[in-house]
Amino acid sequence: MSRMNRTSGLAALALASLVVVGSPSFAAEPTTPNTTRETAAPAKKPSSFALPHHVTGNVMSVNRNAQMFTLKAADGATLTLTADPAVAPQLKALKKGERVKVTYKNSQGQQVATKVTPAS
Angle 61-64-65 (CA atoms, 0-180°, nearest 5)? Predict the structure, then answer.
């Protein structure tokens, strides 16, 4: 057998063994639907690197179970904010139509309220 044929044969054998032994599994793991009813978890505390934003507006709605509230800002924008753990107790007293000033941070795709005070 010539040297070139032997080298080609060894290369083909090595490639075939890699395909058989090292092939990754591309099959997706089966997922089962979540059939249990869960309550919303409190928002995670925003990173200390997240920049604070301030907005003043009127409370449109409050969802105490989800620890969220909707605010209509003075510029007409509507924001749905999640209360961080320090603000969550304030939701009990927050009422529709109330004018408030909110400090919030963008954290993991959510706008998380870190401070809510009555607006003057």
Answer: 125
Q: Where are the beta strands (DSSP E) in 7-87?
A: 52-63, 68-73, 78-83
What residues are paired with 102 via a beta bridge?
55, 116
Bridge partners for 56 per DSSP: 101
Mean pLDDT of the chain: 77
73-95 tens-digit pLDDT: 989 999 999 999 999 999 999 99
Contacts of 84 (CB under 8 A, 6+ apart): 42, 43, 44, 45, 46, 112, 113, 114
CATH number of 52-118: 2.40.50.140
For 40, list phi and psi in degrees, rounded to 5: -65, 135
Q: Where are the domains of the chain?
A: 52-118
- Residue 92 CB-density burial (10 A; 0-12 exposed, 13-18 middle, 19+ buried): exposed
**Single-letter code of the amino acid located at 16:** A
| Assigned token pair, 94 | 């927050």
